[in-house]
Amino acid sequence: MKHIIAAAVSMLLLFAFFVDTAIAGQNVSSLFVAGDSISTGYNLENYFSKGREFTYNYANRLKTEYSCPLVNRAIDGQKASQLSDDFLNGEYDNDISGCGVFIMSIGANDYLGALQVFLSASGSSIDFSRLADREYLNSLAEVFASPLLAAAFSGLDESVYDNIINIISRIKNINPDALVIVHTIYNPFDGIDGMDLLAQLMNGYLDLVNGRIRDGAQENGYTYIDVCAAFAGKASQYIIRGDIHPTLSGHELIASLCKEKIDDYCSESVDSSNDAGNIPPAQTQTTDIETEENTADDYVTQTDMGDINDPGADQDEIKDNKITKIFISICAVIALAAVASAVILHKKGKKR
Questions:
Q1: Secondary structure percentages of the chain, helix, strand, coil, to 5
Q2: Nearest partner of 179 among 250, 251, 104, judged by Cα
Q3: Is residue 92 helix, strand or coil?
Q4: Strands, DSSP E only, in 184-245?
């Protein structure tokens, strides 16, 4: 009989372990996403016809993964100073107070805007349809060799980073327990055949701001995902052809990087407070919000793309997650009942 009880107890502990690993690490109260068109899912399939909520961008992937509410306030073409002003003016205070996780992609338009101004002043532009034209690429190489390019990017790393810190400070003042995740800024030209010179130049400038983002994380109470490092040399895989925005694979990678940070945070919460892995609950319930888009600075045009999204898969995955959790919970109850039955039978055996 002792062996039966021991086996039943072992079964219960095993099921408890699976319940903890399958459920505890995934309890996120809500997601709040802000920034630029990287976070809107710009140019993914369904983006223009149905809207961002019908694309499989990284934010929607995380919403599905954690079965939680999502507020996506990202705006196409937004720059760091614009986002900082919105936060400091209190436009997002309610969203901040109600979020468990905040994710921000910002700064890319500052650099692309500076590049556009430089090219316009030089009487040139980047025509993605001509990247196979060596004569065209040679003409660009001469333009990029100009010392005026360095002047165009001068001080951008400091201004972008300062605006990021202003945003984070606002978040931490309102909701100190929120997990804050900041993207590093990827180079959309790194890995495109014939764009080696521009990719090298942009890497030099982006290294400055990305270095600030990496180095300032611990001091300022945020974490970061290194999208720049993950995308390095792989623009043909992670950037939409003829564009500067992530492909479906690119969004999948960004989502996985975010998930690692969120799961680590949940695990730390379990260790420190034994709260079953919950990121602190929202003070207010939030829902998906479609925002008015700012296209004034969004100079990238729609291009042909090969990505195929399946928005219907979101609901299927949510159902699968819930079914899995219910199944594991039922198994745990059965195991508990087995222990109780074993104990009762053991007591009856003693009385006889």
A1: 60, 5, 35
A2: 104
A3: coil
A4: 223-225
Per-residue pLDDT of the chain (352 residues; tens, 9 = 90+): 555 555 444 554 444 444 444 444 457 999 999 999 999 999 999 999 999 999 999 999 999 999 999 999 999 999 999 999 999 999 999 999 999 999 999 999 999 999 999 988 888 887 877 766 778 877 878 888 888 899 999 999 999 999 999 999 999 999 999 999 999 999 999 998 878 888 999 999 999 999 999 999 999 999 999 999 999 999 999 999 889 999 999 999 999 999 999 999 988 875 665 544 455 544 433 333 333 334 333 333 333 333 334 444 444 544 455 555 555 556 555 655 555 555 555 555 555 5
Q: Given the structure tokens 């030099």, which residue do they identify? A: 204
Residue with tokens 């309890």: 27
pTM given for the model: 0.75
HEC string of 304-332? CCCCCCCCHHHHHHHHHHHHHHHHHHHHH
